[in-house]
Records
---
Amino acid sequence: MTARVARASDPGGTTAMWVHDRPGGLWSDEDFAGWYRRDGRCGLSPARLATVCVLQFLLDLSVRQAAEAVRCRIDFKYALVRHEAPLSRAG
């Protein structure tokens, strides 16, 4: 649903949508595995945090603006979605 709404709201795409659509993604949580203890508390996905930081830099957003974008902007939500259900239903 997020992909459908994001594409309808901006058919040309945005920087955040481009980040999500990169083949193979920019990175995965496994890329950051060496930075965290194995027995540590579960937290936010390091790959998602890195994505927000990169978007904040690319779009020249303040910390507050980046937090607001994560909360409100559909293209940011789309960029942070890992796996989404297929657009068409089988059956």
---
Amino acid sequence: MLFASLILIVLGAIVFIHYIQGLFSATISAILAVIAAVFAFSYHESLVPLFGGKAADYSSGISLLCCSDFSTSSATGI
């Protein structure tokens, strides 16, 4: 219940920031988020063997997190 409330608060903050920025900026942000998700999902299987046996159970999640973070930050120029 606490985690669900935290997720709703974070989602509300993101929606509020997009509301403040305007429709054009929010649309660009949404498009970049979709591109980052597609990029991360398409390359995660080729990155999983790089982790080896150190984090075998978590390697898919780690590679998805790293790919989406790097592609989002490079796309937005941060």
---
Amino acid sequence: MRVSYAIGVIVQNCEFYLTTQGSVFIQNSSKCFVSNNTVTTPTYLNVQTDGIYSQRNSNNTYEGNHIVISNTEPTNHDDCIQSYLDTSLIIRNNYCEQQNSKLQNAQGIYMTDGAGTFTVYNNVVKCPNNQANIIGFDNDVTGTGSLALIIILLSAAAEIL
């Protein structure tokens, strides 16, 4: 589902079988809610598979989603929730799982170059094989974002960045 240049859109109670970049691809939008959706992927797909892909949005909320990424393709970037150049997001009460053997490019929640406050809490993030980040917050180009709170993380080898 693609949401572009929208205000106040609600994507709720949907089931997505992801075969492209994002089950919900949301961009240039504000005050939108993506909640209580279920996202799954095939076990092999040669494209980037992000459960929720968010870019250039402000004041959106992603909550109560159940996202399981099973894609084992080794080189593509497959995150449960990915945010790029967003401002002030709330990410809460989600279940994010990397159900694959990928060692990298498979984050639970990955946020880059954001501004404002990113409030991240009460998420279960399971990335048992990932040797990179399970939750990443990186502002190495632009942005002044700050991360508020993280509650539950499950991983054998990964660390918070």
---
Amino acid sequence: MTFGASVNACVLPPGRSPPLPRPQKAPSPSYALGYYDRDNAFYKEWDGIARDRETFQTWLKGNVFEKGAA
């Protein structure tokens, strides 16, 4: 059986789920299967952040916990 979808697609039967709007730049900074470009500047910065636990904890506090994302 062929669905005509890409390898990474999830095929749902019609009427089984309501349509969802696609958030703009939702996977940023990562790329998403050709929809967005990868944010290489972020990944270069992230490499330094992720190497040190204290730096990572500081980043989490400022970018996640204090912004109400977690």
